[in-house]
Amino acid sequence: xxxxxxxxxGMRGIIGENLHPEIAARYGAAFGTFLKAGGxxxxxxxxRDSRPSGPMLASALASGIMSVGLDVVDLGIVTTPTVGILVxxxxxxxxxxxxxxxxxxEYNGIKLLLxxxxxxxxxxxxxxxxxxxxxxxxxxxSIDCGTCTPAEDPDTIHIDKVLSIVDVESISACNFKVVxxxxxxxxxxxxxxxxxxxxxxxxxxxTEPSGLFAHTPEPTAENLRDLCTQVTxxxxxxxxxxxxxxxxxxxxxxxxxxxxxxYTLGLAARLVYMERKGTAAANLSTSRMxxxxxxxxxxxxxxxxxGEANVAQAMIENxxxxxxxGNGGVIDLRIGPVRDSLVAMAMxxxxxxxxxxxxxxxxxxxxxxxxxxxxxxxxPQQARRIIDKAKMVFSKAKIDESDGCRFDLPDGWIHLRTxxxxxxxxxxxxxxRPEITQRYxxxxxxxxxxxx
Length: 452
Ligand code: MG
Known about the structure:
Layout: E1 5-7, E2 10-14, H1 21-37, E3 44-48, H2 54-67, E4 72-77, H3 80-89, E5 94-98, E6 107-114, H4 122-133, E7 148-150, H5 154-163, H6 168-174, E8 177-181, H7 188-197, E9 201-205, H8 225-234, E10 238-242, E11 249-252, H9 262-275, E12 280-283, H10 289-296, E13 301-304, H11 308-317, E14 322-325, E15 329-331, H12 341-355, H13 359-366, E16 370-377, H14 380-393, E17 398-400, E18 405-409, E19 412-418, E20 424-431, H15 434-451
Parallel strand pairs: 3-4, 3-5, 4-7, 8-9, 8-10, 12-13, 12-14
Antiparallel strand pairs: 1-2, 2-6, 5-6, 10-11, 14-15, 16-20, 17-18, 18-19, 19-20
Helix pairs in contact: 1-2, 1-4, 3-5, 5-7, 6-12, 7-12, 9-10, 9-12, 14-15
Bound molecules: magnesium ion.
């Protein structure tokens, strides 16, 4: 039986195998105890994606949190960014999202947020983890138990915030036809409402939040072939695909071409830099396109270790105007410190309205990048040796070692990093031309073979 993964961003496991309600209740109690120890006595809001196991896990979590004397606000089925927004809106001590993001239906997970809407930084996450493992919780007596109250229409608060940063009239005037595939996740209901508010004609695909995912949920090219066809058949301007908790967005252009998740942040950045000046933040594995877009407006990009919390923290510290991750995750702090597919959809439509150009043309204007991602097994020792060897091979590169090792070269970059949860190393290579990418791929392969 695979082991339950408890990482810094929470826990993820397989329902009925290693993730049970007792675990969720204990985890909830540990999180509540941690919050109280930090002097936070406000309520904790809990949202979940649409998985059928969601109500069971969310109730167990709520029980654990109430058992230590904190109140719970039940957000029901909402997107992950909605929880990040509601934590702050409702002045909560913290938030919990019950989701396994893009993982298949048999999985579920628990993601914790602090009162600022961001996942706990590593030292605090470690503290919560040990409190859970040691069974440390502070149960209260009968009259001091917390209560659980449903929230009224959390989607509206989220949608209104997104609408406030775009020009609703100019987008509505374009009467865009949009195909939205929400893979039966949490994003369908608010996604449709947002697009309606933006005057779009919507072709709804898998927008019912049943949790019975109509296709493999990760919004990659191979999982979105049907969406590409639907965009062409509907003669739509654009196709949007969300992952089950709707923090990621992939885009299909007007010709039915999957343009890839890296472009989501690129297109959003293009809009932001047409309107504002300032700094951006992205993780080390994200395409250079955001650097090019920012530098054209005199802005720069701060690179962070991989992980949404790292990007969000850097954005807050540096007052960034845009940030995110190359997996289709766009963050705008005016909305919340969480990757948000609703923000991304609104920004891309705004860019199309503002420029009068189809999304495929806008992507090509940014484009000219070739990216290759791969992963291979490597234990921590092998990973270290691979990085040491790569430093010798790419000795002329600018090196960033804040998360694995990123090598910046004049004609591209290579990022080698280990996974936090499995003995796996990831290699991300981006250059301007496929033949250069291939050359770097061969170089990495050779290093791997030498290390063995
Ligand atoms: Mg997700």
